[in-house]
Amino acid sequence: MNEQGGNTYTIQGLLTLGFFIFRATHPARTRLPFSALIPQTGSAVSESQDQGTVELQSTGVKQSLLDKINPIKLFRKINPDNLVKEGRVMTERRSYAQAQVLFQQALDLNPNFIPAFIGLGEMLASRGGRSNLEAANKNYQEAIKRNPFEVETYAATARIYDRLGQKKEATLERKKLVVVKTLEVDPRNAIANNNMGILLLQQGQTDVALTYFQKAISANQQYDVALRNLASTYLRMAFAEKSNEEAKNQLIAKAKVPAQKAISLSNTPSNVVVYGRVILAEGNTEEGLKLAERVLGADAGHLDALFLKKSALEAMARFEEAAEVAKTITIMRQGIAEGAMEGEA
Q1: Contact 72, 5 (CB under 8 A)
Q2: What would the pLDDT profile of 24-39 be if each residue is shown by its tens digit?
Q3: I want to staple 295 with a disulfide (CB 3.0 to 4.6 A). Which of 32, 135, 247, 269 is the partner?
Q4: CATH architecture of residue range(s) 78-185
């Protein structure tokens, strides 16, 4: 075996080349693995239904088939990088179905291969049409989920939302892009770290989000918003603990420290509600209800405070009162939805 320049030459490879040359010089239908060849524009290639192969019909000129096959590619290692490179070539040639097969083969080899998700996004965006654009965004989001610092992916998703006429979503993606670029320039920026934590929470990466909230607090220990978000994240993790009561209580205790500090720094309704949620999680229903009513006394339509009050009343078995609060929440939500629709119009 000889390895040079990323290519592996084996006896088996030479035999494979001999087989293809033999088949190319005998009139017949020749079947090749799709990944082994790069069809040129205008070649007689059609997709087959069995395992991603392609078929080339004999044109009567035996050498023309051999010309369509680059023998060097027969020895190229089949790996995600090479498959994505070939997929991008197919996208540029508008051979979209072939590109999709190549990108999918790359993901079959490595389900977390970010360039394959981006390649699929680019290919689907190039095809156009609403369903393809929506599918493109899904693939871009898979890439971002695996690496939130894929800067150009945010820009790509923003452009797709523009094409779909979803201006609010496009604006949000550009805000995310600003956050990522800010952290590249200033990794200790407290606001950017806090916002990155929120983005990670939205993508389900709770443990990593905690790290960014902690970075924000490390950069600015008076930053009550990051303290509140850190407490809320610990609470989210605590509520996710269904069977391990000890672990749940430990997470609630962790949430209480930043929640207390946040409310000591700034007595905002949001900070009060988060602290109230921690108190309620500890089992202090009376105090949780008092904190909810304190916020609602200043803002009767504060949704988070209404949810806190409803939870406290349910914990106290005051179900009729809790049901009335639930009705208020439903009305408030409908009002918000109608207002958003009017704004969009």
Answers
A1: no
A2: 555 544 444 444 434 4
A3: 269
A4: Alpha Horseshoe (1.25)
